[in-house]
Amino acid sequence: MATSLPHFESPAISGLNATSLPVEMPFERLRDSYGRAITDLRLSVTDRCNYRCIYCRTGTDGAQYTDLPIADYAHMLRVFVSLGIEKIRLTGGEPLLREGLLDLIREAADLRPAFAPDTKLDIALTTNGHLLAGLAKPLREAGLQRITVSMDAVDAETFTSITRVPGSFQRVRDGIRAAQDAGLGPVKVNCVLMRGFNDSQIEAFAEFSRTEGVIVRFIEFMPLEEHSEAPGHRAWAPETVVRMDEIVERLNAVRTLVELPPNHISETARRFTFDDGIGEIGIIAPVSRPFCGHCSRIRLTSDGKIRTCLFSQTDHDFAGLMSHGTCDDDLRIWIRRIIQRKEARHHIGEPGFLKPSRSMVHIGG
Ligand code: SF4
C-alpha cells in the first residue's frame, strides 16, 4: 500500500494537491535551478567487476556496495522516464556481470520518453568488454542501441599488465568486433589518460580508431580516484592530467586533425577526424575545458542513491524511500526537489576543492 514520505510533508500539506498532479505526465520537464534540462540518467547496476586494474581498489578488495534487485532498477527507471529522462547509460563496476541485465534493457526499451512519446529511449552501456563477444547479439536484440568500451591501452602486454587478467586484450578486441557485427556500432572506446601511466598510448589509440573503425575518446583524468595503498595506484595531481591541447598537438603530429561538429548541445566530447576522413577521435576535457554549463546528467548508484553531480558531497537514498513504500507521485516530487539542488559545476583545481564522497568506480561513470 503506497504511503506518503515518512519525513516528507505530503503534497497536500505543502500546498500541492497530490490528486491534481497528472500521474504519468509530469507537469514540466525536469530542470535544475540553473534551468538545465536533466535528460540523461547513468545507472550503475553492480559494484562488482571482473578486472583487477592496478589503479583501482575494487580490483583488489572487491565490491563495496550491494546490488539491488533488477525490478527495483526498472521501477526507478519508470519514475525517472516519467519526469523527462530520455537517455539511459548502464554502467558498473562491470554491468555485463549482472544477472537480469537483458530483462532490464527489454523493460527500458518498452518505455517512451514522457516529452517525446513517439520516440524511443536512447539506451547505452559502458563495459570493460571482457564478456562482450558472447553478449553483443543478445544485448542488441534486447534493445541496446549504443556501447562504450573502457580501455587503458591498445597493446596486449600493457593492457594485461594493467588489468592483471591474462588474455584480456584479445577478449576485448573480439568483443568490440562482435558488437560492430551485432549492429551496436560505431563502438566508442574510452581511454582515461594519465601522465606517466598510459599517455604513451595516444598515437596507438589513434591508429586503433582507424584500423578497427571505432570512435576513440580520450578523457582528461579527474580527481575521482579511490584512495589506495595499492602499488601502481595513480593519485590525481594537476601534472598527471594530459590536457586537450597536448593531445591535439600529439595527434596532429601523426596526421592533420579536422574538427567535426557536435552531435548535440550537451555532448561532452570535442570531435575530430583525420584529413583523409578515416577514424574518429573525441576528446573529453572536464579539467581544461569544463562543460558543466550544459550538464544534463544525474546518476543512480548500484545501491540506489541519486548523485546530482560526479563531485557531489552527498547521496540521496532513492532505494530507501522506495523500501518505505513511497508512492510514485511523492517520489517524483522528491526527485524534483533534489534536482533543484544540483551543483552548478565542479571546482577542480580551485582552492577549497573537495573530493567527491564517492570515487568514480563506485559511482559508475
Ligand atoms: S562535474 Fe558535475 S556539473 Fe559538471 S558536467 Fe560533471 S556532473 Fe555535470
Question: How does the SSE layout of this entry go?
Answer:
Blueprint: E1 40-44, H1 57-61, H2 70-82, E2 87-91, H3 101-110, E3 122-127, H4 132-142, E4 146-150, H5 156-163, H6 168-181, E5 188-193, H7 202-212, E6 215-220, H8 244-254, E7 257-260, E8 269-274, E9 280-284, E10 297-300, E11 305-307, E12 316-317, H9 318-323, H10 328-339, H11 360-363
Parallel strand pairs: 1-2, 1-10, 2-3, 3-4, 4-5, 5-6, 6-9
Antiparallel strand pairs: 7-8, 8-9, 10-11, 11-12
The protein binds iron/sulfur cluster (SF4).
Iron/sulfur cluster (SF4) is lined by residues 291-292, 295, 297, 309-311, 343, 345-346.
Explain this structure to me?
Helix 2 runs parallel beside helix 3 (101-110) and helix 4 (132-142) runs parallel beside helix 6. Strand 10 (297-300) and strand 11 (305-307) form a beta hairpin. The protein has a single domain (29-362), classed as Aldolase class I (TIM Barrel). The model is unreliable at 1-25 (pLDDT under 50). It has a twelve-stranded mixed beta sheet with strand order 7-8-9-6-5-4-3-2-1-10-11-12. It is globular. It has helices spanning 57-61, 70-82, 101-110, 132-142, 156-163, 168-181, 202-212, 244-254, 318-323, 328-339, 360-363; strands spanning 40-44, 87-91, 122-127, 146-150, 188-193, 215-220, 257-260, 269-274, 280-284, 297-300, 305-307, 316-317. The protein has eleven helices and twelve strands. Helices cover 29% and strands 16% of the residues. With 365 residues, it is α/β, with parallel strands linked by helices. 41% of the residues are buried. The structure holds iron/sulfur cluster. The site of iron/sulfur cluster has 10 residues, from loops.
